[in-house]
Amino acid sequence: MSSTRPLLDYFFAPKSIALFGITAHPHGLGQQILRSLIEGGYQGEIYPIHSQLRHSLGLPCFASLDEVPTDVDLAVFATPPQGILPQLDSCAKRRVKAMIIISGGFKEKTMEGGRLQDQIVAEANSRGIRILGPNCQGVYDPKTKAQTLFQSYERLLRPGPGKIGVITQSTALGCTILEWMAEEGLGVSRFIGYGNRADLDEADFLQYLKNDIETKLIGIHTESFRNGRRFLEVAQLVSDRKPIIILKSGRNEKAANNVATHTGSLAGSHKVQTALFRQAGLIEADTIEEFMDTLKIYSFYEGAAGKGLGIATNGAGFSVIVTDLAERYGLEVPNYQQSTRENLRQILPPHAIIGDAIDLMGSATSEDYRLAMELMLRDERVNVLLVCLVLQNTFLDASIVDVVSGMLRTRKPIVVCATGGPFSKRRIAALQMNGIPVFPTPERATRAIGHLVARGERTGKRLDQLPGLHE
Amino acid sequence: MSSTRPLLDYFFAPKSIALFGITAHPHGLGQQILRSLIEGGYQGEIYPIHSQLRHSLGLPCFASLDEVPTDVDLAVFATPPQGILPQLDSCAKRRVKAMIIISGGFKEKTMEGGRLQDQIVAEANSRGIRILGPNCQGVYDPKTKAQTLFQSYERLLRPGPGKIGVITQSTALGCTILEWMAEEGLGVSRFIGYGNRADLDEADFLQYLKNDIETKLIGIHTESFRNGRRFLEVAQLVSDRKPIIILKSGRNEKAANNVATHTGSLAGSHKVQTALFRQAGLIEADTIEEFMDTLKIYSFYEGAAGKGLGIATNGAGFSVIVTDLAERYGLEVPNYQQSTRENLRQILPPHAIIGDAIDLMGSATSEDYRLAMELMLRDERVNVLLVCLVLQNTFLDASIVDVVSGMLRTRKPIVVCATGGPFSKRRIAALQMNGIPVFPTPERATRAIGHLVARGERTGKRLDQLPGLHE
User: Fold this and answer.
1) Of the residues A432, B138, B140, B346, which has the fewest C-beta atoms closer than 10 A?
2) Using CB atoms within 10 A of its CB, is residue B322 exposed (0-12), middle (13-18) or buried (19+)?
3) How many Å apart are CA A352 and CA A345, to the nearest integer?
């Protein structure tokens, strides 16, 4: 598979892109991709191909690929299915290495479309060209701005550069994940929306991200596997080095049906898959939200040293819920050490309650949190600290942000649960900027922590052995 | 219980409020409540009580309740626990009917605090005064602006007037729910944060909301019940008339422990409670998010006529997930009638896929949605229509908002699933303004619809028999 790596680089850092499927219509698919390349500031050469148009969005068009003055790394097709085969010879002549077919109308549509898809792959491969798609969103690279996203910058936020590699079969989920990351301030390393995966498949992408130094963790959403066995083999190798979060949809017969029409591949039994994922070290999410929350916590921390979940709060309503759910998510609210309890009792205001959670009460100040967190993080039974913050309470001033994030020096994962409107959202954004992941409900915080702890337990690694924490 | 109704009116529409616990400190609890009353524009008389201060926040203070010139409907205490008993005679003299004790330090704290709490209740009751609290957030009425919320308007958004009655034991959840409602544009009828419920309890509040004409549905979060049997009896009566969504935290032994310290009452076995809730017609949510989502869908629709869930989409990724989950949430993706399928085939673009979901593909326009929705809503096997929208796609213009909301005339519940950043959020807000509930993931949309259908099935009512749809 070592040839995959240089190959996939042509998708993310092409020196030049030829774009087929330009139309006069401003909303055409080709036009949209061209607009994204321009708006994004892609710095390579862009060659829009059109037999008649002289210009498109201010760029000169080329009547055919043969007239393009340089070699082309990446050919992007937004044409009707029939428009692709006739171009393959020209592509070969221009030394095209990588091809993305955005258009639909292939295997997901009709038998005939399926045959055409197979033929294109065979003919392209025989010319040394590998294909992403068809019927897909394609790629987005946050550094080179190489992309085939056919949603404008106005309509679709793009995340900046970062450590999360995203692989999804679905454009709907692609849009969802990209905008969520952008709004959360999480960075993407590479984004791949792969649709029908007629040629390159989920195992190839995973293999590529394994060796990609930008990518520190991987999120993969798929509705089916082209070759489940190979995928799991690759996943097993990758998951030892980088966390892989997986969301597998297309689970039941009804859905399998749906998937068959959507991407032309069948889904297997979900229960069996879940067991296999586990075996391969994959972290499975049940919902889009859980998928994103888990990516989020892993983009802040690599793991936790154990399941002891300390809880500090200024609102017992939150900590009660965390305590309810700890067991469900494989966590344990610890019996704090006797010395911790005694020190807390001595140092905290008398109204604070030293129970399963350390309840600093509604009147808690940033200083109360500082005192409590110091002691709790020193307790060896606390492996992760969940800090619940009712930020709306007047007594909690802006210094809470520095107090909480300052504790990161202890190298134990610290997670915040906080809800609220514009005021709280500003504090939440500041916390996340400072390296603290914030979740909007106690349930979601607890679940995300559960996933973080599970990986530590599975890999047998202790946090202090995990490199690159908070990098 | 008929005496409860007029009594609780004194909490929500008092002509005058006496406020104990004013301090010179601007961040004091009493100061915060006073600020909320002023900022909110409460129109009744406000009497801040303080032995020395002449003014507080621009209002004249009274040295004692005896010096207040009129009768007082509501006395609010933000004083230390010891400060309450000495005031009860003056309260009686001023014909105080209702008392809210915001302060903590009672049963949740110590045995002694528990005894003091009991004594206050006994003494107050003997003078004809009923108590909300102590250790609680108190009330918020969106019309009179009577409130004891001790979070400023800057820090805590308040929802406007509306149909949802909210009862919560927790201030943390109170803040969460209030701000979420405000941001979603959902209105509140009455808000009650009840804490230790030393006197009035969850059954009393439920009973009050049953007869309250502003309240059309009820959300209740509790960590325990003072009298579970009475609560269920009342709930049974109310749930026939108004949907009640319940979130019960404090579920396991560990949590029960926590709850015992928090509000001074023990929790029971959660499994048993779940069965009893069901029997009483309550709709139980497992998480805060599910609680809020369920309140949301019921604030748009009263129920559904059956479990047939039609799905229209321009992104198969979403519909695959919905199809996965339909059964889990008691829904059925229908076999559309033969005539529906034929008409759809005839009228929709050839690339549309008429499967379990009607997939209009990424190129779908508002007109495609209009055509599909018309036919789907006419199909008697469709009881609820879930419209998945990848709003980021260029082909979907602003008219989608009117197209979708225009279909409400069919009187079948229509729910939208849409995700996204600022661009999509504007469309989502417009859809909700027009009467369409929008959920941010297919999983949450499906779960909420499941809850909507379940009630219809339980009450045996068909949608067309339910009054007040979309009022």
Assistant:
1) B346
2) buried
3) 8
Interface residue of B286, B320, B444 to substitute, partner A, most A CBs within 10 Å: B320
CA B444 to chain centre: 17
Comparing C-alpha atoms, which of A318, A329, A313, A358 is closest to residue A441? A318
Cross-strand partners of A59: A56
Q: Which residue has the tokens 């709004």?
A: A183
Find chain B residues with C-beta within 8 A of A183's C-beta.
421
Please tell me the pTM assigned to this model.
0.94
Instruction: Report the DSSP beta bridge partners of residue B418.
Output: B389
DSSP B61: P
Find the helix or strand (DSSP H, E) in which B138 lies.
strand B138-140
Question: Cβ of A430 under 8 Å from any chain B Cβ?
Answer: no
For B428-449, the pLDDT digits (tens) are: 999 999 999 999 999 999 999 9
CB-CB contact of B439 with B416 (8 Å): yes
- Chain segment A339-351, per-residue pLDDT in tens: 999 999 999 999 8
Is some CB atom of chain A closer than 8 A to the CB atom of B423? yes
Place of tokens 């009483």: B280
Nearest to B324 among A32, A251, A326 (CB): A251
Tell me the pLDDT tens digit for each residue of A152-165: 999 999 999 999 99
**Is residue B153 within 8 Å of residue B39, measured between CB atoms?**
yes
Can you give the three-state secondary structure of chain A, one letter per residue?
Answer: CCCHHHHHHHHHCCCEEEEECCCCCCCCHHHHHHHHHHHHCCCCEEEEECCCCCEECCEECECCHHHCCCCCCEEEECCCHHHCHHHHHHHHHCCCCEEEECCCCCCCCCHHHHHHHHHHHHHHHHCCCEEECCCCCEEECCCCCCECCCCCCCCCCCCCEEEEEEEECCHHHHHHHHHHHHHHCCCEEEEEECCCCCCCCHHHHHHHHHHCCCCCEEEEEECCCCCHHHHHHHHHHHHCCCCEEEEECCCCHHHHHHHHHHHCCCCCCHHHHHHHHHHCCCEEECCHHHHHHHHHHHHHCCCCCCCEEEEEECCHHHHHHHHHHHHHHCCECCCCCHHHHHHHHHHCCCCCEECCCEECCCCCCHHHHHHHHHHHHHCCCCCEEEEEECCCCCCCCCCHHHHHHHHHHHCCCEEEEECCCHHHHHHHHHHHHCCCCEECCHHHHHHHHHHHHHHHHHHCCCHHHCCCCCC
Q: What is the pLDDT of residue A396?
A: 95
Mean pLDDT, range B48-61, rounded to an integer:
95
Percent of chain B with pLDDT over 90: 86
> What proportion of chain B, given as a percentage, has pLDDT over 70?
92
Query: Among partner residues B172, B262, B314, which is closest to A390 by beta-carbon distance?
Result: B172
Contact (Cβ atoms closer than 8 angstroms) between residue A398 and residue A427: yes
Contacts of A105 in chain B (CB under 8 A): 351
DSSP secondary structure string, B190-207? EEEE-TT-SSS-HHHHHH
| Residue A14 Cα to chain centre, angstroms | 22
Which residues, other chains included, contact B273 with Cβ-Cβ below 8 Å and sequence gap of 6+? B228, B248
- Point out the residue among A318, A395, A424 whose CB comes nearest to the CB of B27: A395
The Cα B37–Cα B148 span in angstroms is: 8
Is A180's CB within 8 Å of B419's CB? Answer: yes
A48 vs B338: CA distance, rounded Å: 45
Across the range A378-390, mean pLDDT stands at 97
d(CA A401, CA A398): 6
> For the segment A45-103, what is each residue's pLDDT rounded down to a tens digit?
999 999 999 999 999 999 999 999 999 999 999 999 999 999 999 999 999 999 999 99
Residue A260 in tokens: 């068959």
Q: Is the per-residue pLDDT at A357 higher than 60?
A: yes
Q: In this structure, what DSSP letter does residue B248 have?
A: E
